[in-house]
Amino acid sequence: MDVLARPVESIPEGQDTHLVEQMRITAAGAAAGTAVDLAKIGVPVASLGAVGDDELGDFLIMVMRNRGVDVAGIVRKPGEQTAASILPIRPDGGRPSFHVPGANLGLSLADIDQERVTAAQVVHLGGMDVTWGLHDPAFFDLVDKAREGGTAVTMDLLSNMADLMPAVRAFLPHVDYFLPNEEQALLLTGAATVEEAAAALLAEGPRGVLITLGAEGSLVATEEGLTRVPALDVPVVDTTGCGDAYCAGFVAGLIEGRDVVGAARLGTAVAARVAGGLGSDAGLDGPVTDA
Q1: What are the protein's GO molecular function terms (predicted)?
Q2: Could you identify which of 142, 159, 173, 271 might form a hypothetical disulfide with 246, taking C-beta atoms 3.0 to 4.6 angstroms apart as the criterion?
Q3: Judging by beta carbons within 10 Å of its beta carbon (0-12, 13-18, 19+), is residue 209 exposed, middle or buried?
Q4: pLDDT tens for each residue of 254-270
């Protein structure tokens, strides 16, 4: 869950109160946020993950269900916290955060409906850097089985924490498209440029690497070469969830039958919609095109 307020220029001293223009509570993150975005742009989506047995978990499941996500695969973990963040959004759209990790840390293969994975047209792995229970060769075997059956597998990360990056590399031979942000890509590879990082990540197994670059758009790397996809020029209210929205648009593009660059352009358009409002699903009230 994300709790967002804008605009926030400073944290009040003592018990002072600052008035803000807007607050929202949203389903967010590299899995739930992307799932909600997919549902809101018209793509049927089911979410597999874990929440605690707390009120936050109740609310998160309700929000996702209300947005159109199939939540039957979300498990409750007794005694655990549901992952949540508080985000005071700056006037320029920047988003510092206060975060508590939650039940997804312990999500394991035993919690996953394997038939749903192998039957999906696309499986999106969100936040594998912090879903430690799935750092499991048996899970990699499941993902490979899905791919053998024609499922496309995409992956995005949640954190920019250097000590979590090395374990992510184990997933790369098992995914088709990897969608890190610039900082994650550089941390993973130690490269000096995003072009070098993309080439290094592509060499580890994916069919495509798409590095999001904020206001600079994204870099798409495939065996055919590198392509820059520019960001759209839109007024920015809040950058929360733009990467998750890019992933949702990219997945939607794959389902439409677009090539990788075409799917990236749709991802760019979905991210631009989200940047224009507060929260990770802002502005997504129906189909999005990149025309």
Answers
A1: kinase activity
A2: 271
A3: buried
A4: 999 999 999 999 999 99
